[in-house]
Sequence to fold (200 residues):
Amino acid sequence: HISTYYVGHDEELFYPRPAPSSAAPFVVFYYGSYLPLHGVEHIVRAAKLLEFEPDIEFRLIGDGLMYALARQLADELQVQRLTFHPPVPYVDLPAAIAQASICLGGPFGSNDKARRVIASKTFQFVAMGKPTIVGNSPANRELFTHGKDVMMCRMADAKALASAILTLCRDHSLRARIAQRGLQRCQDAFSMAKQGLRLR
Fold:
């Protein structure tokens, strides 16, 4: 018998924290190891499309295989309001996530693996009660519902990602609803207790 065991999240680290103050910038957040499946180039291009939205700031944390290419693309496009930050220790990730207004779970890449995986960061983001955008992939659709517990967008499509970001940015009630339902979905299905029962 074969069954699926989902990654889930570490409840001792990833739980809702106080939201940023209303005076804080509207931060669209990504962290990761810049693997091809993440599709960070599409995040950079989405940031370029949204650079004339004065309230939106992109914050990318991490390093890895495609990092240099992402930096080069951002420089070539002269993207405004996008900042790259070095990796942070795992235990410090929740503090970084807590400052976000929207989180990018992805994957947004175009390769086959991007369609087959649910990013571990997606579980972490929704467990922290953050409105999260993911790629509209078979893997993500296995667990989540567009417009209910996450926002989905077409993969490898900067315009679709920018549109999803702008929709959430402009609709506070939608952000709050997706964040709450995502958190509830995580608690109902992927708590450590539920994960233990699944293993047993």
In short: DSSP finds nine helices and six strands in the chain. Residues 7 and 104 are 17 Å apart (CA to CA). The longest strand covers residues 26-32.
